[in-house]
């Protein structure tokens, strides 16, 4: 079997939205899992709407998601001469023809067809005209689509799709100003780039039938088609901004880890048994076209949160800290100091459990990042009344003699609580307020171990003296 080559071909007219990111991911997984190539083509033929900023946003979004492509990104607009040459070759072969019909004539044809309740599919009077009758006037070049029979698309997701040829028009290949159309450019680029599998949204399914006419006329191999259903919102309607159809960079700015987003997007419309959480290596090994469903997938933030939480928990501490710093950078937050970085690195083991996003992880790590002396929040301050401060002051000398291991700290605390005629739970509130200035924190013992003996004792002493 020849090498698998897939491509992602976005139009640079805006950000890389989540649906486009999933299409890119499916292409990436399919190629990477088979030792093939994953190519990137920027379909910038719409000069009026394409912008360098949008191209940069697409590249940035793919880089954050970790979807690396082989070779340089290809500009479709740069291939205009090649596209034009193929249109002229089709003309020479008799597979295309010059059409001199003006826009007014085409619109008049359609108006008459509507009035007579017949197909508005334009039938050019120039299709079989004798070249001797051609006027000296601008013309478009149209593909000669077969007028009978059927075009069959054997789609890996949609199954066998049959379209009657009399439902297809003679599509324009070159406009009257000599510029090639997008539909021609796509086919020529896919052929020239050696694309073997076209995995794209099912809104392109009808395009496939029209594009097959070019493949056939040129004698080129038709790629394997896989048209994937679009993504819907939780209410079953087409995904919109209110559902989460945001730019990929916005998910980064919301603090989702890239691995979690990759995992979630892979499961959005594709399945491997009952597996929900999986690594990139597993996804590459398992991903296939047969596992893609025919129905639109529904975007669900709760599932995204859940998977991202699992990926944060499973991540290596150093990699997590690096991605956390990238998150701070894109959101314009202050960078970590060396002390904060060191503290988070030490505390990552107790911060990453049950944190679904980086803001949640940072919130749990507040005790590391907070300025000292600690100023308790209102709810926590209620745990630092005169009695509680007295208890902390009495506890301090016992802690000064502890060996600062979890077992020893637990033993010291429990003995102290017993001596005070209370339970450790009664000590926890004042200790949380002293160490973090909050009522809800990671375990008291985790905080003390992460902060270390000196810093922990200084905070407890400050709170105990009311200072």
Task: Please name the defining characteristics of this protein.
3-stranded parallel β-sheet; single chain; mainly alpha; 3-stranded antiparallel β-sheet; 467 residues
Could you walk me through the main structural features you see in this protein, from its secondary elements to its overall organization?
The chain is mainly alpha-helical. Helix content is 48%, strand content 10%. It has 19 helices and 12 strands. The protein has helices at 18-32, 52-65, 80-93, 103-115, 182-192, 205-218, 248-253, 258-267, 280-286, 301-314, 317-330, 338-351, 358-364, 366-369, 378-381, 386-400, 406-419, 424-436, 444-464; strands spanning 5-8, 37-42, 74-75, 96-99, 140-143, 150-155, 159-164, 172-174, 197-201, 224-228, 231-232, 297-298. The strands form 5 sheets. It has a 3-stranded parallel beta sheet with strand order 1-2-3. β1, α1 and β2 form a beta-alpha-beta unit. The longest helix has 21 residues, at 444-464. The model has no long low-confidence stretch (mean pLDDT 95).
Order of strands, main sheet, comes to 1-2-3
> Strand content of the residues, in percent?
5-15%
- Rounded mean pLDDT is 95
Number of helices: 19
Low-pLDDT windows of residues: none
Tell me which oligomeric state these chains represent.
Answer: single chain
